[in-house]
């Protein structure tokens, strides 16, 4: 099964479902397709998204904390570790 989720920054969880590429809060999408190595299943992996531009557009580049909302679009997602933001 394919899995897809979008990432929204600094918007309420209830509003995040409606956030898309036309919105400043939209940070991007991630899609995982079935793997032949997992007999059609998915493998665990790490996702790195660069959100510097989104933070700058929101005026949040210097903020100590931001809200990161993962919005499932296809399939189920499981987050094993809290998202972190690191300055490059």
Short description:
The protein is of the alpha+beta class and 88 residues long.
Question: How would you portray this structure in words?
Answer:
It comes from Digitaria exilis. Residues 3-78 form the Polyphenol oxidase C-terminal domain. GO terms for molecular function: catechol oxidase activity. Pfam families: PPO1_KFDV (PF12143). This is Polyphenol oxidase C-terminal domain-containing protein. It is a single chain. This protein is of the alpha+beta class and 88 residues long. The protein has a domain at 3-35 and 47-74. Helices cover 12% and strands 24% of the residues. The protein contains 2 helices and 3 strands, in the order βαβαβ. Strands 2-1-3 form a 3-stranded antiparallel beta sheet, with no helix packed on it. The longest helix has 7 residues, at 52-58. The mean pLDDT is 81.
Topology:
Elements: E1 3-9, H1 13-16, E2 26-32, H2 52-58, E3 68-74
H/E element sequence? EHEHE
Uncertain residue segments: none
Query: Which strand order do you get reading across the main beta sheet?
Result: 2-1-3
Q: Indicate the radius of gyration in whole angstroms.
A: 14 Å
Query: Looking at the structure, what is the overall shape?
Result: globular
Mean pLDDT: 81
Q: How many DSSP helices? A: 2
Give the tally of β-strands. Answer: 3
Structural class: alpha+beta
Taking the sheet with the most strands, its summary is: 3 strands, antiparallel
Strand percentage? 15-25%
